[in-house]
């Protein structure tokens, strides 16, 4: 086909001239665009002629077949050598062919955009107009030229686009050739190049990913992240500040994904759009459901389906967001999904980003579960603490009462209580030997038993013995030091089971210790208690205290002890019970540098 070969040689020469013209006159592109369109029409005609000749040529003639192959290779070379961006689209706007100049302009690897929807590269505000022009060209066959904006790989271009319908013999579907001449180019910010471009950029990107994991770990391991439900909010704020335009967190509650947090661009007026995203049901999002079902993340370097995140009243959410790329990863092990969206004007998410964000999702899931577990245990600890100490002390006729209670470094096992009994009032103080929830539950059981049995028994010692029988029968293996007393008028009868002796503070500052003693409850079926009867006259104060008080130690390892307690109490002669317990508390804090390891209980009852 010598005529065709001659025509192709001439076309190649004219294309070279157009490339030179574009370089020489960059500010006057309109004539070059018109000439390029004309040459594109010429190339289409030559392609059609070559195809027709190939169809008619005898298939058995090897020489002619080889010649046809040479012609096709030449035509492909012409397409690749065009000095302007040329894209071949099918009727749906999907890229079928793209020349190197287009890839260079958009900053994407050769062939990267093939098979993707080209209208998604168009600025959101002009996307509908582009699709209308495309449909018009396909239906009427009349070329169309217009201005629009393209954004990809962090580059933004204002371009003059020309669309021409291609009708190829033997092709069932019509194609459209798009020529795009840039009139204004906005290059990426420094440091926003694709990480694949250089080893240095690869190292920087890897360092940023590692930095994200470190920052996220610090945020999620902070004590406040366990005490309050702030883990998700903190994580989304960090990701929105450094990694994405939009960050959406959906957590599973009662088997359904529920929108938990939405962060949008801070520099744009998107408050209404944020509310729409917040109101959107994550169960209507294809990508969220996919991640929850498969429990693995997905990344779209170029969003090819704008309906993936669901809809608002105005249409697809991703369209309103101006989404260019998207990544969605699971939170924990099926506990939710974390979705990040970037606009067209930012570099797209990559597989390396997917890997690091999946690790972030795993960390966030662990933090959410730890927070839930911690708060559950905290509520349980609060409940146990409430079961070993009254919220308020009742008014005891003829007396004033006050108490301080400081929990230790773990769930406490000390208790105290004041309660009504027949013809008077009762009190109790003590604690199980041990730490943690089991010890606290045993203390709560003893406290409850003392209170309940005191409603039927008139002697505190009988109450203590029956509680001992019940504790031994329970088989907890724990023993409890306790003291219980009944106050009737000025007479106070006490029963001690291995507890420290009470202190009677005289109005003149004298300090007298009661007998105390006995064997702790729960050791033997037959209780061995110590019983004592005291008289508390007006102005005298009875003080009871826990093991944690006198065993507190200073920085030299010395115990607080009962002698120091007696000295402090002597200085409190004549003071109200509230002042007495406060003085003891302050002195102990001074002695031990404010450290509290075991529970501190101080109870004072003053005759008036």
Question: Can you describe this structure in just a few lines?
Answer:
This protein has 608 residues and is of the alpha+beta class.
Keywords for this entry:
GAF-like_dom_sf; rod-shaped; 24% strand; alpha+beta; 22 strands; single chain; 17 helices; five-stranded antiparallel β-sheet; 608 residues
Give structural notes.
- This protein is α+β, with helices and mostly antiparallel strands.
- Helix content is 42%, strand content 24%.
- The strands form five sheets. A five-stranded antiparallel beta sheet has the order 2-1-5-4-3, with helices on both faces.
- Helix 12 packs parallel to helix 13.
- The protein is rod-shaped, with a radius of gyration of 42 Å.
- It starts with a helix and ends with a strand.
- About 1% of the residues have low confidence.
């Amino acid at each position: 086909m010598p005529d065709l070969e001659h025509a192709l040689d001439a076309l190649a020469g004219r294309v070279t001239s157009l490339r030179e013209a574009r370089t020489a006159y960059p500010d006057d592109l309109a004539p070059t665009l018109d000439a390029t369109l004309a040459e594109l029409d010429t190339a289409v005609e030559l392609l059609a002629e070559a195809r027709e000749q190939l169809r008619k040529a005898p298939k058995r003639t090897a020489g002619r077949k080889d010649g046809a192959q040479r012609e096709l290779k030449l035509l492909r070379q012409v397409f690749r050598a065009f000095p302007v961006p040329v894209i071949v689209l099918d009727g749906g706007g999907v890229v079928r062919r793209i020349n190197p100049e287009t890839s260079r302009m958009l900053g994407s690897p050769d062939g990267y955009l093939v098979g993707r929807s080209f209208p998604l590269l168009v600025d959101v505000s002009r996307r509908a107009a582009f699709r209308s022009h495309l449909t018009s060209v396909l239906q009427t066959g009349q070329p169309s030229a217009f201005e629009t904006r393209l954004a990809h790989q962090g580059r933004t271009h204002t371009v003059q686009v020309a669309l021409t319908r291609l009708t190829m013999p033997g092709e069932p579907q019509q194609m459209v050739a798009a020529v795009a001449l840039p009139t204004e180019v906005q290059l990426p910010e420094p440091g926003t190049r694709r990480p694949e471009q250089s080893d240095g950029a690869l190292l920087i990107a890897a360092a940023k990913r590692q930095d994200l994991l470190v920052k996220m770990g610090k945020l999620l391991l902070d004590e406040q992240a366990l005490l309050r439900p702030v883990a998700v909010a903190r994580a989304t704020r960090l990701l929105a500040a450094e990694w994405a335009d939009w960050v959406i967190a959906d957590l599973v509650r009662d088997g359904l994904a529920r929108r938990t947090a939405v962060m949008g661009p801070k520099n744009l007026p998107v408050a209404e759009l944020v509310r729409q995203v917040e109101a959107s049901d994550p169960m209507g999002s294809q990508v969220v459901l996919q991640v929850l079902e498969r429990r693995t993340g997905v990344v779209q370097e170029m969003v090819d389906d704008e309906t993936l995140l669901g809809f608002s009243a105005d249409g697809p959410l991703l369209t309103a967001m101006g989404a260019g790329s998207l990544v969605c990863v699971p939170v924990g092990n099926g506990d939710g999904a974390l979705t990040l969206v970037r606009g067209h004007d930012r570099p797209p998410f990559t597989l390396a980003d997917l890997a690091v964000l999946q690790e972030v999702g795993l960390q966030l899931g662990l933090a959410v579960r730890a927070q839930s577990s911690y708060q559950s245990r905290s509520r349980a600890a609060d409940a146990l603490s409430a079961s070993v100490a009254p919220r308020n002390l009742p008014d005891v006729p003829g007396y004033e009462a006050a108490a301080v209670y400081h929990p230790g470094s773990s769930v406490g096992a000390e208790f105290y209580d004041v309660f009504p009994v027949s013809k008077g009032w009762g009190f109790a103080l003590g604690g199980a030997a041990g730490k943690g929830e089991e010890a606290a539950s045993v203390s709560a059981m003893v406290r409850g038993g003392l209170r309940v049995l005191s409603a039927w028994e008139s002697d505190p010692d009988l109450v203590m013995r029956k509680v001992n029988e019940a504790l031994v029968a329970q088989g907890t293996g724990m023993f409890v030091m306790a003291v219980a007393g009944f106050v009737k008028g000025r007479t106070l009868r006490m029963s001690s089971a291995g507890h420290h002796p009470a202190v009677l503070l005289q109005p003149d500052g004298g300090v007298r210790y009661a007998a105390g003693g006995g064997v702790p409850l729960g050791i033997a079926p037959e209780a061995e208690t110590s019983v004592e009867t005291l008289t508390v006259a007006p102005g005298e104060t009875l003080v009871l205290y826990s093991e944690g008080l006198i065993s507190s130690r200073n920085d030299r390892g010395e115990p607080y002890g009962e002698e120091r307690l007696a000295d402090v109490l002597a200085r409190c002669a004549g003071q109200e019970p509230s002042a007495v317990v406060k003085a003891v508390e302050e002195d102990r804090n001074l002695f031990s540098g404010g450290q509290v390891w075991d529970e501190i209980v101080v109870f004072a009852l003053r005759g008036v």
